Amino acid sequence: MFLSRWIGSSISQSRGLSSSSVLNAKALTVRDALNSALNEELERDDRVFLMGEEVAQYDGAYKISRDLWKKYGDKRIIDTPITEMGFAGIGVGAAFHGLRPVIEFMTFNFAMQAIDQIINSAAKTLYMSAGSVNVPIVFRGPNGCAAGVGAQHSQCYAAWYAHCPGLKNELLYGVSFDVEDSVLSPDFVVPIGKAKIMKEGTDVTLVAHSIGVKFCVEASEAL
C-alpha cells in the first residue's frame, strides 16, 4: 500500500500498535484487515471513496472491497474502465479538492501505467506548492510475486516507490497473522514507519517485508 500524505490527520493519536509483543492473539488475514479498515474509514468520513477496476459489484479482484458497494453505493465505491492513468488522475484531482480517495490497482505492475500521476502529480505537489496543496490519497493493491501468475503480474515495485519523495510506503504480507485484541478495536491505527519485531536475539538482525518475513522467521528458527 502506497500513501501520499496519509488521510488520518484528524484521527486520534491515542491508538497504537505494539512492535514487540502479541497478547491474546487472534488469526486475521490481510484481506479481512483491509476490508475492515476501508469500511471503518468510509463510515467515519464521508469524503472517503474507493475507485478501481471491479471494486464495486464484483467486490474487488481479491475481495478486498467485499460488501462495501452494497453498503455505500455507486457514489463512494466506483468501478472504472481499464485505464490506470485515467482513474489515478481523477483520484489525484479529487484529493486536490479535499476528498479522500482510495485508488486500487489490481496489481502494482499496472501502476506503471499511472506512474506520472502517482509521482509527479500526487507525491510532489505538496513540495512544489510550497506546502499549500496537500494530496490526501491512498494508492493500494497487491505487489510482488504469487504462485501461478504471469511475469506481468509478479514484479515487486517496493524499491521503486520507496525512493520517491512524498510517498509513504506501507507493505503487508498476504498470509494469516496473529494480532492483538487492540487491533480489532474501531479506534486503532498502524503507525507508519515502525517495524514489527517478530523474534528477538543477540547475534544477527534480519530485516524483510512481504513474503520475505516468512522466510526470515524460518531462517531464525533454523539458526
Strands of the largest sheet, in order across it?
A: 4-3-5-6-1-7
Give me the secondary-structure category.
alpha/beta
| Continuous helix count | 7
Globally, the shape reads globular
Number of domains: 1
Instruction: Give unreliable regions as ranges.
Output: 1-23
Give the biggest beta sheet. 6 strands, mixed
Please estimate the helix content.
25-40%
Kindly report the CATH topology. Answer: Rossmann fold
Approximate strand percentage: 5-15%
Q: Radius of gyration, rounded?
A: 18 Å
Number of strands: 8
Give the termini distance in whole angstroms: 32 Å
Tell me, rounded to a whole number, the average pLDDT: 81
Protein name: Pyruvate dehydrogenase E1 component subunit beta
Pfam families: Transket_pyr
Catalytic activity: N(6)-[(R)-lipoyl]-L-lysyl-[protein] + pyruvate + H(+) = N(6)-[(R)-S(8)-acetyldihydrolipoyl]-L-lysyl-[protein] + CO2
Cofactor: thiamine diphosphate
